[in-house]
Design a protein that fits this description.
The chain is an alpha/beta fold. It is built from 20 helices and 29 strands. It has 5 domains: 7-30 and 269-430, no CATH class; 38-197, FAD/NAD(P)-binding domain, CATH 3.50.50; 200-266, Alpha-Beta Plaits; 447-522, Alpha-Beta Plaits; 527-584, no CATH class. The radius of gyration is 31 Å and the shape is flat.
Length: 587
């Protein structure tokens, strides 16, 4: 069972032919007219540097088609400050010891030069704002120097770059003067003048977002993983929500892989189309008599620059590696892949690599819990062609029937969690689930909720904030039910509960029980004392009476109103007003 399969005996050349046939029949789903955003740059450049480096850069950029050049000289302040100059001469003013300084000053005499110790920079191509602190409020340097609200481009030559994001906004370049990177930046800057379009990589469905509800904060997974700082939390009077800035977004895909509900979806292609492509590719490969396929998820740019892999390796050419996560990897195994390999690259941002490794650990824990060999999934280091082309260790998992496949996925109406649950259900059927709860990496969207029956009043506040169908109320009588397969462990239920009666229980339950809806608390309904209509639970009425015992509105006989339904309560109030005309004047 643990012996590596010898693909030579299976016919490696035949697999190559089968792969070519499959790839010729199945096209990667590309949106030919994706929704896009547009940058507009007139070529107004801001250079952040010590004066010597800044003037040298400005001189090289003269007559290069830029509309204007402004130099912000980062004056020497305290050691280690963002604006601290790092002159090799140790002089306070490096111009004093520069050979040919007169020529340099003459060539840059029209340069708009400003000095500062502190500043704040934000924006992107065509919309950069640099603010200088001032006792009367911040000074917009672009407005002060060139009479415009924004700079279009920024060349940052400071020792400590102003922006330190893993994926920098377009239009911003950080380099050290005299380096190859700096010279390349100077060459590229004039090419960043004009209008430029790029796709809107993502769309967000706030209706299923688990970030916030009723002013309570839940899931923050997408905020924690974005390497471009393109996601922000926006707050209103009552609730907060997640916004994606399409101008800052690089399409890294980390947010869509981290999002447990599918509220954030990648557009190029959509998750459903991507998963359907893998299924069709595997089906076409087997139809051409290919043996034991290995699905490799890799970036299209990486694939274009490497040698041809072995015939049994079927590549999924992603725009960005983060666009596929554990749900896609496991679905590929369920669709008939013998193994899934994820191709890492050297240019992968550290935060994205951390996310992919976290997704890998989650996926292998799920495989182990369901009784499958964890070697079916692996991460490939860059340029490791030996592991890339290695024959699969195990034969493919038993493939689904056509009926099972039709029910499995490929519908735009099926959400991310439903697709993942379908995959896990199939892996459960074909594996040997332990029946136990398995510890998952921190933050994994799997787990139970514990309900304290003694303190829960069935107010159903938890149901009102739950972004999935995990928690539900009763239709005919007061009850609280829970389905673990739908729970993403966002914590909103725990945050909203006024009685502190509900708590998260992280971990993956490798048992069919996970998919059953279970009643966690139920009790008889409380009937209205006037009309007899059931309108709440007994414990809810008891709790409300205790909390409002001292409220003047319910003093004396009025306390009985708490035992009335909404309609009867209103009628009772108006009857009191009718019998006491003077009380009407107090309304």
């Amino acid at each position: 069972m643990n012996q590596r399969i010898d693909l030579t005996s299976l016919g490696a050349d035949h697999n190559l032919a089968a792969r070519e046939t499959a790839q010729s029949r199945i096209s990667w789903p590309v949106n030919l007219t994706p929704e896009s955003v547009t940058y507009s740059s007139d070529g107004h450049l801001l250079i952040i540097a010590d004066e010597l480096s800044g003037r040298h850069a400005a001189r090289e950029l003269n007559n290069q088609g830029l509309a204007s050049i402004t130099l912000l000289v980062i004056a020497a302040a305290s050691a280690g400050s963002p604006g601290n100059s790092d002159s090799s001469t140790g002089s306070e003013n490096p111009l004093e010891e520069e050979t040919g300084v007169e020529s340099l000053l003459e060539d840059t005499r029209l340069l708009s030069v400003h000095y500062a110790h502190d500043w704040q920079l934000e924006g992107y191509l065509g919309q950069f704002t640099l603010t200088l602190p001032h006792e009367d409020g911040g000074i917009n340097l672009a407005q002060a120097s060139i009479g415009r609200p924004h700079f279009d481009l920024v060349l940052d030559l400071a020792q400590h770059p102003t922006l330190t994001l893993e994926l920098l906004p377009p239009g911003y370049t950080a380099a050290s003067w005299g380096t190859e990177a700096c010279q390349q930046a100077i060459t590229d800057l004039p090419q960043q003048v004009g209008e430029f379009a790029k796709p809107r990589y993502f769309q967000i469905n706030h209706d299923i977002c688990a970030h916030d509800s009723h002013g309570k904060t839940g899931c923050t997974r997408c905020l924690d993983v974005c390497p471009a700082d393109a996601l922000t939390r926006k707050s209103g009077r009552i609730e907060s929500w997640i916004e994606i800035d399409p101008m800052r977004c690089h399409g890294a895909g980390s947010c869509t892989s981290a999002c447990p509900t599918g509220a954030i979806q990648y557009r190029l292609p959509s998750p459903v189309d991507q998963q359907a492509y893998v299924e069709r590719l595997l089906a076409a490969y087997r139809l051409a008599d290919g043996k034991e396929p290995v699905i490799r998820f890799a970036e299209a740019d990486f694939l274009a620059g490497e040698s041809t892999p072995a015939g049994h390796v079927l590549d999924v050419p992603l725009e960005e590696l983060g666009a596929a996560g554990q749900d896609h990897w496991l679905a590929a195994l369920a669709a008939g892949a013998a193994e899934v390999r994820v191709q890492l690259t050297e240019r992968l941002p550290a935060s994205l690599r951390t996310l992919i490794e976290d997704q890998y650990h989650q996926a292998t824990t799920l495989l182990e819990a369901l009784g499958h060999d964890t070697r079916r999934l692996s991460l490939l280091d860059p340029n490791d062609s030996e592991r890339r082309d290695a024959p699969p260790i195990l034969p493919s998992i038993a493939r689904r029937t056509s009926t099972e496949k039709a029910e499995f996925t490929s519908s735009s109406d099926v959400g991310k969690r439903d697709r993942l649950n379908a995959t896990l259900a199939y892996l459960t059927e074909t594996g040997h689930p332990s029946g136990q709860r398995h510890i998952m990496p921190a933050g994994a969207p799997f787990g139970d909720v514990a309900v304290n029956k003694d303190t829960c009043t069935l107010c159903l506040g938890c149901v009102s904030v739950c972004p999935t169908p995990a928690l539900a109320g009763g239709k005919a009588s007061p009850e609280l039910s829970f389905r673990e397969a739908d729970c993403v462990q966002c914590g909103l239920c725990e945050e909203i509960c006024p009685e502190d009666a509900i708590h998260l229980v992280p971990g993956f339950l490798a048992s069919p029980e996970r998919t059953y809806r279970q009643v966690r608390k139920e009790e008889a309904a409380f009937p209205c004392i006037r009309c007899g209509k059931p309108f709440a639970s007994v414990s809810t009425i008891s709790s409300i009476k205790a909390k409002l015992a001292d409220h003047p509105y319910f003093a004396g006989d009025a306390m009985a109103r708490l035992e009335m339904c909404e309609d009867c309560r209103v009628k009772d109030v108006w009857q009191d007003l009718a019998h006491d005309p003077e009380s009407q004047l107090k309304i």
